[in-house]
Write a structure and sequence with these properties.
Number of domains: 1
Strand order of the largest sheet: 1-2-3-6-7-9-8
Order of helices and strands: EHHHEEHEEEHEHEE
CATH topology: Aminopeptidase
Strand content: 25-35%
Number of strands: 9
CATH superfamily: Gcn5-related N-acetyltransferase (GNAT)
CATH class: Alpha Beta
CATH architecture: 3-Layer(aba) Sandwich
Radius of gyration: 16 Å
Largest sheet: 7 strands, mixed
Helix content: 25-40%
Distance between the termini: 33 Å
């Protein structure tokens, strides 16, 4: 049985490094094709400087067991939209989309920058709890959160839908991937 999980914001560089270490273990190049299909994967590789900058603007969200980060769900605000090349097309699309009859630019939202749970801790509700912690921490400041998920990552798509995300837009980024942009509107719940 695992230790009680604590949901909080990273306070130290060590915790930020643990996020990066967990991220590295779940990049497509570091997992088998079978695991990629069954367990999902993360797409973006951050560095410590960028993650530190992101955390200083809006606190990131982590799940810890004892003193170890076992999950994370990153906040990506618009100020960082040009910092990660693979995300630029998503931010450009978001600026052109509408939601409930209004342009997305009329809303105050952020992007779920990435979510990941350590293998030994999957299936224990940590994913859902990370998102509930996001809602608890940020719903007074933001209307909703959005993210994009590769259509080749069905586990992630299913997990996001289970939490409450709905499809906003699907598109193909030629030579990169087929994406679903999904939205979790906290005002609906």
């Amino acid at each position: 049985m695992h230790t009680k999980i604590q949901f909080c914001h990273p306070q130290t560089e060590r915790e930020l490094q643990q996020i990066l270490d967990l991220q590295a273990l779940n990049l497509p190049d570091n997992i088998s094709s079978e695991e990629l299909k069954q367990q999902g994967y993360v797409t973006v590789k951050h560095n410590l400087e960028l993650l530190s900058d992101m955390n200083s603007v809006v606190p990131q969200v982590i799940a810890k067991a004892d003193d170890q980060v076992v999950g994370y769900a990153l906040v990506m605000v618009h100020a960082f939209q040009d910092k990660i090349p693979v995300l630029i097309p998503m931010f450009q699309r978001l600026a052109q989309l509408t939601y409930q009859g209004s342009p997305m630019t009329a809303y105050n939202y952020y992007v779920m920058g990435q979510v990941c749970i350590a293998k030994a801790y999957r299936g224990q509700g940590i994913f859902d709890s990370l998102f509930q912690f996001h809602r608890q921490q940020f719903s007074n400041e933001y209307d909703f959160m959005v993210t994009q998920i590769s259509e080749h990552n069905p586990r992630s798509i299913a997990a996001h839908r289970r939490v409450g995300f709905k499809l906003l837009h699907a598109y193909v980024d030629p030579g990169v991937d087929d994406w679903e942009i999904v939205i979790w509107d906290w005002r609906e719940h």
